[in-house]
Design goal:
Length: 147
């Protein structure tokens, strides 16, 4: 059970970037916690971050061949990228969209998500803990699909 955890632009600066919004944990901390949970859940993880839209798309294409599910924090691409939505629409397994902040409490332009048109579930405003919840959900959906 392979799961891709994909992170969009500026998330490499997590922990340093607007900590009042995104907290003090770094993306390396998030990856470490995700790997620990994946071990418990019997998942194998590919954990990636990029500031480049095409790399996110290429990883989704890779996931098509290899992965059972995707957890994605598309960051700003959430609100702009038909291309990321189109890529996710080619993926057959479960997709969970994850946002650290509560996007609905923020600027109006963050209230719309292209990715939500495809996501099986959305998590927002749980801080970095949202990744753990998203992983649990994706594991459940992969199992349900196999049953
Ligand atoms: C984010 C929310 C987005 O609106 C923003 O562009 C991000 C991070 C979040 O995790 O809360 O970069 O996806």
């Amino acid at each position: 059970r392979l799961v891709y955890v994909l992170n969009g632009p500026n998330l490499n600066l997590l922990g340093k970037r607007q900590p009042h919004i995104y907290g003090h944990e770094t993306l390396a901390d998030v990856e470490r916690d995700c790997r620990a949970l994946a071990g418990e859940l019997g998942l194998t993880l590919r954990f990636h971050q990029s500031n480049r839209e095409y790399e996110i798309i290429d990883w989704i294409h890779e996931a098509r061949e290899e992965a059972g599910g995707i957890v994605i924090n598309p960051a700003a691409f959430t609100h702009t990228s038909v291309a990321v939505l189109d890529a996710l629409n080619t993926f057959e397994g479960p997709v969970i969209e994850c946002h650290i902040s509560n996007v609905h409490k923020r600027e109006a332009f963050r209230h719309h998500s292209y990715v939500s048109l495809r996501a099986d579930g959305v998590i927002a405003g749980f801080g970095t803990q949202g990744y753990q919840l998203a992983l649990r959900r994706v594991a459940r959906l992969i199992d349900d699909k196999a049953a």
